[in-house]
Amino acid sequence: MKLARDTWLIFQRQLLLMWRTPIWLIVGVVQPLFYLLLFAPLLRPVLAPGGSYAQAYRIYVPGLLTALVIMGGLFTGFSLLGELRAGIIERTRVTPVSRTALLLGRAMREVVALLVQAVIITLVALPFGLTVPFGLLLLAYLLLGLLALMASSVSFGLALMVRSDAALAPVLNTIAQPIALLSGVLLPLSLAPGWLRAVADWNPFYWAVEGIRALFAGHLGDASVWRSLVLVSALTVVAVLWSARLFTDRVR
Amino acid sequence: MIVTKGLRKSFRSRRSAPVDAVRGLDLTVEPGEIFGLLGPNGAGKTTTMRMLATLVRPDDGEVTLAGADLRTEPHEVRRRIGYVAQGGGTTDGASAREELVLQARFYGIGKAEAGRRAEQALAAFELTEFADRPCAGYSGGQRRRVDLALGVIHRPRLLILDEPTVGLDPQSRAQVWAEVRRLREEGMTVLLTTHYLDEADALCDRIAIVDHGELVAEGAPEQLKREISGDVVTLELAAADAEAAEKVLTGLDCVHRIEPREGDELRLYVTDGASAIPQLLHALAEAGLRPEQTRLQRPSLDDVFLARTGRTIS
C-alpha cells in the first residue's frame, strides 16, 4: 500500500518534470522515424521478397519498436546520475519514502515515455499500409512496456553501481550493442549464417521481437507469443528485484 | 536529543589504505540547543552528519537520535529528524511549492494538509513571492531557504544541517542564521557543522571541535575560549629587555604559557586578562622593566584549536 502510494508520488513528479521538458519526445521519435522512412524501404526486398510495403513494415516495425524501448530504457540511467549529483536522491533518502518506490516511480515514467514514442511510430507507419488487429497491438504494447520496465530497471541499477557518466556510457554501449544486433532489429537475422542464428536463439530479446512480429502479423496463437510473454515477464521481475535491492542497499 | 558513544567509520578503497574518517566520537546534544560541530575540512564532520542522517552505516558505536536507536530503528530516526545536506537537493524543474508538497507527502502527510504546510513554510521562510517559479532560477540564498523549509516540513524535533551557509553571501548567511534561531525558538534542537569560526561563535550555544575524526574540545564557545587558552596578552618591550622580561614572567601563577618569542614581542596566555595585566606590570616593574605597549585580546576559537592541535583551522 505504502509502496503503491510512494511509487505514485514519484511517478507523478517524474511525469510532471518530463512534461515540462518535451524535448525527449522529439529526440525519441525523430531517430526511429529516420529508420522507418529511410531505412525500411531499403530492406523491403530482404524482409518481404516480392511482397508489399505493408508486409515489410509488419516485420520491420516490431524490431524497431523493440530496439527503441530497450535502447531508450537502457540509457535512462543517466537521468538518475543527474538526480544523484543534484542531491535529490539523497534528500529523498532521508525521508521514510519506500526505496523500491524510488526505482519503480522512475521506471514507470520511462515506460510511459517509451510507449508514447512507440504509439507515434506505429501511427506514422499506418499510411504505409501497416495493419494490426487492435487487441493484438495492445498485447504487443504490453510486451514493449515490460521490456521498457526491464531495461530501465537494469539501467538504474547499473547507474547506482558505477555512479559516473564516464563509466556508464561504455558499460551501456557494451550491453546494448550485441543485444541490438542479435535481436534482428536493424537487419533481419534471415540474412545471418546459421551459427549466428543459433546464438540469437539464446537472446531473450530476439524472442521478444519474434513474439511481437507474430502479434503484428495477427498470429495470436503462435507459440512465440506466449513464450515471449512468459520469458519477458520473468526477466522483468528479475531485473526489477535486482535493481530494487540495489536501491535499498546503496540508497539505504 | 542526540547521544553518540564511540561512533566510528572508516572508508576502504581498493587503491589506498583505509581512511578513518570518524574515530570514536562521543557527543551529547541537549534538547533545545544549537550545537555546532566545528573543524577543518576533512575532519569527519560530514561523515558524522551522514551517519546521523541514516545515509551511512556506522562501523561501530551507539547512537540515539530523538529517542530512536540509529542502528535498530533507522526508519523511526528518519521520521523524527530533518536533514539538510551540504549541497541541498532541490529539483531544477519543480517549484518551491511543488517540492514542499511532495516532501511532506513522503512523510505520509495527506494531500490537503501537505498543501497547507507548504503554504505556511513558504510564508515562514519568505519564499511566497517566487513560490511557483522553478527552483532553477533561484539565487543561492533562496535555494538555501527552500532546503531549510524542506528539512522541517514534517516538523521534526531535531534538525541536522551540514554546512548550512557555505558559499553564501554575507546577507544570505545572516538570514540563514536568523532562520536557525527562529527554529530553535519554536522548540527545535539544531545540530550543524561549520568550518567558519565566527558562525560557531555567533550561532551556537555549544560546540564540539573535531579534528581527524576525534573530539578535540567541547563546551560553550565562551567557556572553551576561556578554559583552554584564557586571554592573550601581548607585551611590547625594548629589544634589550625582552629576554629578561620573559624570565620574570615565566614564574607567575596567572601565566599559563608564553609563546616562543619573536623579536621584542611577548605573547602570554593568561587566565583572566583584566586581572592579570596589573600583576604582569607589577612583576616587570619590580625587575626594573617597563613594556612600551600592552594589548589584551580575547582568544578566538582558532586559538582554542591551535592550543589543542598545534594547527589553525583555516
From TrEMBL, chain A:
Residues 23-250 form the ABC transmembrane type-2 domain. It is found in: Cell membrane; Membrane. One of its GO terms (biological process) is response to antibiotic. Its main location: membrane. It is a multi-pass membrane protein. The chain crosses the membrane at residues 21-39, 59-81, 111-130, 136-162, 174-196, 225-247. PROSITE patterns: ABC_TM2. Keywords: Antibiotic resistance, Cell membrane, Membrane, Transmembrane, Transmembrane helix, Transport. GO terms for cellular component: ATP-binding cassette (ABC) transporter complex. The keyword DNA damage does not apply. GO terms for molecular function: ABC-type transporter activity. Belongs to the ABC-2 integral membrane protein family. This is Transport permease protein. It comes from Streptomyces tateyamensis.
From TrEMBL, chain B:
It is a peripheral membrane protein. One of its GO terms (molecular function) is ATP hydrolysis activity. Pfam families: ABC_tran (PF00005), DrrA1-3_C (PF13732). It is found in: Cell membrane. Coiled coil: none annotated. The keyword Transport applies. GO terms for cellular component: plasma membrane. GO terms for biological process: daunorubicin transport; doxorubicin transport; response to antibiotic. Keywords: Antibiotic resistance, ATP-binding, Nucleotide-binding, Transport. InterPro entries: AAA+_ATPase, ABC_transporter-like_ATP-bd, ABC_transporter-like_CS, ABC_transporter_ATP-binding, DrrA, DrrA1/2-like_C, P-loop_NTPase. Gene3D superfamilies: P-loop containing nucleotide triphosphate hydrolases (3.40.50.300). SUPFAM superfamilies: P-loop containing nucleoside triphosphate hydrolases. Residues 2-237 form the ABC transporter domain. Belongs to the ABC transporter superfamily. Drug exporter-1 (DrugE1) (TC 3.A.1.105) family. PANTHER family: ABC TRANSPORTER ATP-BINDING PROTEIN (PTHR42711), ABC TRANSPORTER ATP-BINDING PROTEIN NATA (PTHR42711:SF5). This is ABC transporter. It comes from Streptomyces tateyamensis.
